[in-house]
Amino acid sequence: MSVTTEQVDKLADAAMGCTEYVMAHSLAGKWGMIKEVFAMRSAAGDVPHGPGHDLISATRQHLSDRSDSGPTIDAEDKDALRADGQRLVESSLPVIAALPADVAEQVRAWLIGIAEKVAGASKDKGGSEKVSDAEAAAIEDLRRLLRA
Asked: Residue ranges of region Disordered (predicted)?
């Protein structure tokens, strides 16, 4: 399968969208938010072997080459962060739907893996759980959205 610039751009946006969407459901402080952004970068580097390897690898490289290192929205504006994250993921859906089924499945799993690592990067302020109920619900929202 040949990899296109549009696919890479949209999947990079989706990775950022998953990050923003989960961060919007987090009550972590500023240090926790920084840890969540680093978790996205780390998770994006987990490129699985299989049918989507080339596309995911190109997307990871694109994310690494970007000059931005996290959300471009004020991370404390949870409504804006949630809306932008959802918009970015939704904008990737036609590209994911056009992929061969096995590639699309691997891309979805990679994106959910990013969301899970972001959620587990930092406890909410005053919380004891690595992944809060709100973050777990956000991940489930993303699973449903990516299946749409």
From this structure: 49-77
Q: What's at 102, amino acid-wise?
A: D
Q: Provide the residue ranges of all domains of the chain, joining segments of one domain with +.
A: 5-147
Residues 6+ apart with CB under 8 A from 140: none
Rounded Cα distance, 53 and 35, in Å:
26
Taking alpha carbons only, the member of 101, 105, 110 closest to residue 15 is 110
3-state secondary structure of 73: coil
CA distance 90 to 68: 21
pLDDT tens-digit map of 5-56: 999 999 999 999 999 999 899 877 776 677 777 777 777 778 889 999 999 9
Write down the residue that tokens 């619900």 correspond to: 137
Q: Which residue has the tokens 């987090």?
A: 26
In the DSSP assignment, the letter for residue 1 is: -
